[in-house]
User: What shape does this take?
Amino acid sequence: MALHEKDTIREDLEDDVYASTDLSVTLPKYKMPEHEHDPRHAFQVVHDELMLDGNARQNLATFCQTWVEPEVHTLMNECIDKNMIDKDEYPQSAELEGRCVHMLADLWNSPDAANTMGCSTTGSSEAAMLGGMALKWKWREKMKAAGKPTDKPNLICGPVQVCWHKFARYWDVELREIPMEGERLIMTPQEVVKRCDENTIGVVPTLGVTFTCQYEPVKAVNDALDQLQQDKGLDIPIHVDGASGGFLAPFVEPELEWDFRLPRVKSINTSGHKFGLAPLGVGWVIWRDKADLPDDLIFWVNYLGGNMPTFALNFSRPGGQIVAQYYNFLRLGKEGYRKIHQACYSTAHYLCDEIEKLGPFDIIYNGRGGIPAMSWSLKKGVEPGFNLFDLSDRIRSRGWQIAAYAMPPKREDLVIMRILVRHGVSRDLADLLVEDLKRCIAYFKKNPVVNRSNEEESGGFKGT
Ligand SMILES: Cc1ncc(COP(=O)(O)O)c(C=O)c1O
Assistant: This one.
């Protein structure tokens, strides 16, 4: 190689990223570039673009994890190349998944935790689909055996997360969703029983309703369904959507009966990436007993050298989240989960008191009887110079993302703001947030919002 060529190469290597030829032009956005780019340069462009996303730690609208220990980062890195479906190739990851299933079955008081069935999923949505399918299959078997028609299945629930709307539409099931009414924002046993008939495949109470964060009364619904069976002979199972509560109640309210202690509870879903404290991309569904998962939903896949049972909507899936979930179980144990969640509840209560003191707000949910969270609406009759959408917008100028949204059907008139207090929302951060809310209120006092268009007044549900 000639000497002058060495110099050219050196120049390239020492180029400042932003002064490089690659970054002296705008990179294509919607067509694949014709040529390669230096990895340093491409990385910097993508990295910089991500700055425009909100800061996840200040996203108080999400239930999902935004802080993990350094060890979790390392494990995620170690697993980046492991495909969860290749159980024959990665038998130890498969073993860890199985252990998580049995630990959860035990945590939720399955009568036969060591032998029951369950699996990991991408989140609660996939887990809900699998739980719902098992209910539908079981109901169909029963109806066929009785020589009855199977074309009009229905499912009863309170105000549910959109995954249940999807389930109903994708699997052709009528969703009998109990609407909110006046002060009643969740299901009651009376409202459930009213809607039951022989085509009801199951009832889905939510342990931590997405909109209000309250727990629905699983035991009271279980008891009302017992009574219904006595009165009318209908035997209706329960699937609990424990997306959030499944990882809260066992640690913080162990005496609350919502799980497999109740005989009608046949399956439960939860999100590992919410209060399970795992990184994004893992959920779980567990059946009370092997017999509650119909055999013909299980596929035996002979692939890459093994014959393995699977029940999932996806095939390939990353293994890191599941490994991280197992790490959390070992690292924290029941004691660690309890401490973390209790700290969150106590910060939620603190925030509730402080936000109430600000003056213009009515507290809707005070962090008791549900998820560590709190929500508020604007007091009726006050004219603070803003509505909650304005406040949500203004507080974002300090990076805080706090959703303002209208309640689902029949209570669309009620607009609330909601804060999820997760692992990593410290007391100190809570104080900083309250100071910023005070600043916003003072700003609107001086600069009230006037001439609002109708469009700006409305906003559907935002948050995960
Ligand atoms: C009650 C409930 N069920 C299901 C889901 C969907 O969970 P995932 O995001 O894990 O799919 C959510 C998400 O917020 C939820 O709150």
User: Anything to note?
Assistant: The radius of gyration is 25 Å. The longest strand covers residues 265-271.
